[in-house]
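Running this now, will post back.
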Amino acid sequence: MDKRSVTGPRARFRWAAASVTLLMALVNLTLLGQYRAAVLERVPDAPPGAVKAGVAAALLFGSVLNALGVLVLLFLAGAAGAAACRAFGTHTEFTRVRVTVALAVALFLAAKVIVITAASLAFGVPQTRHVTELIGSADLSLLLLAAGCAFAVRRVSGLTWGRSAVCAAAPTAVFAAFCLIPT
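Update: finished.
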């Protein structure tokens, strides 16, 4: 299959990565009140225009850092999954496995963002900071990530279910390590 195909795994990965990056930027919009409070705390007598500029700069900077963090997470998780598959004897192309595992991680992250945001809107979580902490936390949802990665590894590499589950532990561990980074 051509690398530039619009239907291959790389194209699906590009769409998923772009969607997750956009979702994370939209989650940053929930933090506008915090950004405003932080600007007013640092410069209490700032005019309204300067406060708006400070909030916009914080939003932009936070969105860019979130986007970079998501892309690094997807690359490292995909590479860890592909390396684990290679260690367990798959002969599938490394890039194909990396992209498929990264796609599974991207879909998991998108689902987690959507479910937590929808639940917070439906049940009225009082603090928006709570939503971002839930999205970046290591919780039982990592079992779903491991299952999704095991399914993806099994499908792309043809390994047995046992070996696929062990290979799925690598991207799950990378995701968990990213969750342990303090904010």
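The helical segments are 9-28, 32-42, 48-87, 94-123, 128-135, 142-157, 161-179. More later if anyone needs it.
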